[in-house]
Specification:
five-stranded mixed sheet; alpha/beta; 45% helix
Length: 203
């Protein structure tokens, strides 16, 4: 399978796209688009979920330094509630691709977009790859950058909304997070469409 993708990508400027934050109860969904180029291989890059936080931080710095272009798309909880998480994910990915810029802030248009198990609204050639964040180098790079960026938001959220353990759970529905929701109620960064069952139990 990987060989077939290598043939498809040969001699093309490949952009990898991935997102982080589909499942959490709070915070935005964040997508990243990355063009690495043929010679910018970084040892240790793989799906961000399989890396420690410390390793992700190290790799993120190297990816940002070596990438030919990076684009970021962020869709917040209000839009998620309005259009649902699947459409919000696709929107974040679309924004990320459209925001692809090199280090001189020039917009860059790739030859092909490799997306992790999604289809996005673009006139660019694209390929959707199941487990792409594990199989395709550029998508793995995108998953790391998106994860590190989204996690960084929750350091600030922890200060603004103490008591929810955001710095540790990153908005995911851990036991401590759910207990805080029942005790304190939702914050402005919570996805209300995700909380109906939890808040219903409280009632």
């Amino acid at each position: 399978m990987i060989d077939s993708y290598e043939k498809l990508f040969k001699d093309k400027l490949v952009c990898g796209v991935d997102e982080v934050g589909r499942g959490p109860l709070a915070g935005p969904v964040v997508a990243c688009a990355v063009i690495m180029g043929k010679d910018n291989l970084i040892e240790g890059v793989k799906d961000s979920k399989k890396l420690s936080a410390k390793k992700r931080e190290i790799l993120n710095k190297e990816i940002v330094q070596k990438a030919l272009a990076i684009g970021i798309g962020v869709v917040d909880e209000r839009v998620i509630d309005q259009i649902n998480i699947k459409q919000a994910t696709r929107l974040a990915m679309k924004i990320a691709v459209e925001e692809l810029k090199d280090k001189k802030k020039n917009l860059i248009r790739p030859d092909i977009v490799a997306v992790d198990a999604e289809v996005i609204d673009t006139d660019l050639e694209q390929v959707s790859i199941v487990r792409g964040d594990d199989l395709i180098y550029e998508i793995s790079c995108a998953s790391i950058v998106a994860k590190v960026l989204r996690d960084s938001y929750f350091i600030d959220f922890e200060k603004t909304y103490p008591g929810y353990d955001f710095v540790n759970n990153k908005g995911y529905g851990t036991k401590k997070h759910r207990e805080a929701l029942l005790a304190l109620g939702p914050t402005p960064i919570h996805r209300m469409s995700f909380l109906k069952k939890i808040l219903g139990e409280q009632k």
